[in-house]
What we know:
Layout: H1 2-11, H2 14-19, H3 24-31, H4 35-102, H5 111-121, E1 129-136, E2 143-155, H6 157-168, E3 174-183, E4 191-202
Antiparallel strand pairs: 1-2, 2-4, 3-4
Amino acid sequence: MKKWLEILKEKLNLSKLRENRFLAPLFLWYDGLPPDQKNIAHTASIIGGVLFLLFLVAWGHMKVEGLKEQIEAQNLNLKELSRYEEQFQEQTTALKILEREAKKLGADFSLLSSLEQLAQSSQIGRESIESISPKQLPPGEYFVETEATVQLARVTLRQLVEYFYKIETSPNTLLLKEIRVKPRFDNPQYLNVTFKVSAYKPKE
């Protein structure tokens, strides 16, 4: 710091400034001024120097504020990336769990038979099962999905809740989707229900 000040002091030496080819005409013009005009020029130069210093301070402050905004933006981006990383880890964990559970499905697993058995254990008779239509969807990147559309008629709310519970807690990892429930016009205590159920197997 001391060495830098010495260099600055040397550069701003009045005699050396007078020898500068760019500043020499300015000094000659100043030397030729009357004393009163020299005072005015001297005062103007001081004011100009102060204004220049104020400009430098303001410019430096703007730069600092700009850097602060950039740092805050980077911090927000880092937080967003951390949030995405946490979500990715959660999804990866869920995918591993689903894959592990899906491997429990045997080669002889039938979504149709499983849904029929769960309906019977929920006190839903065959007469209330209008249709169960399974179909295999196009394979995904990791799993093969089998989806069944189930239509029920004249079931009670208690039967339906028990049936859904057994599906959701099935060891075969079944997933309920797109549930539509309508009370019957002839007897609102009974329901007509349409829903979809998916089962997954790891892609071979």
